[in-house]
Amino acid sequence: MNKSEDCLFCRFASGQKPAEIIDRFTHCFVMKDSFPVSLGHLLIIPNEHTDNWFTASEEVQTEMMHVLTLMKQRLDKEFHPDGYNVGLNCGKAAGQTVMHLHMHLIPRYLGDIVDPRGGVRGVIPSKQKY
């Protein structure tokens, strides 16, 4: 897919818009989330525009998974979190607001919420506890 001039993440990738990019790879880059859920919250974003995980090439998906592991190791050393949430929102119904694939790596810390059980199931609060 071609880059979209209106896409925020394409503008970050090309350097047209400043961002706190912490590392670059062949097919993706990593930046600090502008609205972090927790200390160390990162986004892994492909350089090339693609709407979501399911429209990305296997090559991009493979590198993003490798980068996810590298960034987890980096956050372990820097912040020593107690756990992680990894998230992909694919489509408006799933909460995606920027229609350019991006993966969230969210460090979690004991006590950051009263009861974390159910984790990502919390996207639908009535389904989180079971």
How is the topology of this model organized?
Layout (H helix, E strand, L loop, with lengths): L7 H7 L6 E4 L3 E5 L9 E5 L11 H22 L3 E5 L15 E6 L16 H4 L2
Antiparallel strand pairs: 1-2, 2-3, 3-5, 4-5
Structural write-up:
It is a single chain. The protein is α+β, with helices and mostly antiparallel strands and 130 residues long. It contains three helices and five strands, in the order αβββαββα. It has a single domain (8-111), classed as 2-Layer Sandwich (HIT family, subunit A). It has helices spanning 8-14, 58-79, 125-128; strands at 21-24, 28-32, 42-46, 83-87, 103-108. The chain has a five-stranded antiparallel sheet. It is globular. The N and C termini lie far apart (41 Å). The model has no long low-confidence stretch (mean pLDDT 94).
Write a concise synopsis of the structure shown.
The protein is an alpha+beta fold and 130 residues long.
Q: For the terminal residues, how far apart are their CA atoms? A: 41 Å
Shape: globular
Named CATH topology: HIT family, subunit A
Give the CATH level 1 class: Alpha Beta
**Which percent range fits the helix content?**
25-40%
CATH architecture identity? 2-Layer Sandwich
Average the pLDDT over all residues and give the rounded result: 94
Beta percentage is 15-25%
The SSE order reads HEEEHEEH
Number of helices: 3
How many domains, as an integer? Answer: 1
Provide the spatial order of strands within the biggest beta sheet. 1-2-3-5-4
Largest sheet: 5 strands, antiparallel
**What low-confidence regions span 5 or more consecutive residues with pLDDT below 50?**
none
Global Rg? 15 Å
